[in-house]
Amino acid sequence: MVVQAVLRRSAQIPSDRTTGIVNITGKPINIGGSSIGGSTTATVYFNGYIDHLIITQRVKTACEILPDAKLTVYYPFENSIHDYGPNIITGTLSNGTGTSFITSGRVDTYALQLNMTDSYFRIPSLTSLGTSNQSFTIALWIKPTALSGTLIHLSSQSNGLGWCTPFIGFSSSRQLITNVVSSLNTVISVVGPQLQLTPFWTHIA
What we know:
Pfam families: Laminin_G_3. The chain is globular. It has a domain at about 75-205. It has one helix at about 60-70, and strands at about 1-5, 5, 35, 40-45, 90-95, 100, 110-115, 120, 140, 150-155, 165-170, 175-180, 185-190, 200-205. The protein is mainly beta and about 200 residues long. The chain has a 4-stranded antiparallel sheet with strand order 10-11-12-13, with no helix packed on it. The longest helix has 9 residues, at about 60-70.
């Protein structure tokens, strides 16, 4: 039993008892409700929400289970803006004429290119970033053509207004900078080095 990517309990099934332990060929599987057998049939139900159910034909390792529990989004930008993480949160592109996919990516084949004003990629509904005292990591490869602008911008409204902060970007001195808002509503900044321009890729997190 794995809860929040942590192994809580386990049991070993004797080898002489594994054959036919689950024989459900041609039988339905109920999710969220079941009947309890015996002389009197009773039905019990789950109250709550269920999302992204996966059934595999083998036991998953701890390394395989961890992304399902901890990974929020994963965008490889392999000629698409689909989320390949467990939550399947597809993003949107603004100003499509200023965005394209190039075939000289750092990982795999493609990469997303933003080359015009008002061109950006938006991820909706990342509620986990608003959880108090919850650690998180944002990681990406970048190949800047200029050491200016914002890489990651957080906002409480879908139009970018309301409470917002430039989370990762470049300072006026062209240094990489990260801003985090504390519980006291103060901005804590971490200033990094100047990065190399294209054709060099840099991994930041």
